[in-house]
Each structure stands twice: as C-alpha cells, then as structure tokens.
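User: My collaborator sent over this chain with a note saying "see what the structure looks like." That's all I know about it. Can you take a look?
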Amino acid sequence: MALKGYLVEFEDFFPTMVEKLGAEGFLDELGNGFRLLMDEEKGLITLESLKKNSALLGLQDMKDDELRSMLEEGDLDGDGKLNEMEFCVLMFRLSPELMKTSRVFVEEAILNEL
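Assistant: Without extra context I'll predict from the sequence alone. Here is the result:
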C-alpha cells in the first residue's frame, strides 16, 4: 500500500473475507473496524484516535506523518478526519483485488437489501 510517499506492506485479506462473510458480513466488519479506530465522542477517525488505537492493528510503530498521510488519503471532504463512508471507500481503494471484483460485491449487497 502506498500512501503519499510512504510504503506500508500488508497482505490483502479483503477478497478472502468477502468470500467467507459475503457482502453484508464484510460491510459489517468494515463498520467494526471503523468503530475500533474512531473517536467515540466525534464519531470520526481523527489523527488522535488513529494514534491511540493504531496498536490494535499492529501499526503502533507508525509515525505521526505516516498516520496523517493515511487520513489525507481517505479524506474526501477535506476536514482532516474520516467518516465511515470515507473509511470504507479507502479500504476498497487499498485492496486491488477487491476493486476488481467490486461490481459483483455491490450487486450482491444490493440484492440482499431487496
């Protein structure tokens, strides 16, 4: 994963998770990940909440500028924070294999809602 000048290595488990959990289950897990990282009072992922909770993801050694870069990468509205939608979009963008199959994923999620 490359974030504005930084390289963070991770194994992409998202396609396997989608396969095992289905579209709805995977979205639930993304929501759980968001809530794990968010500032409970603000309901957003902030630099402070990311620093505080990054150890839960094995990212405790990341520097502030690396964490800030992660926020900037997903921050679509420019407020310096991530809401749940921005977080989910970022997670999709960071998974090349999931991006390839996202159409099928979205169709499955829509069909489950009907």
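A starting point for your reply to your collaborator: DSSP finds six helices and two strands in the chain.
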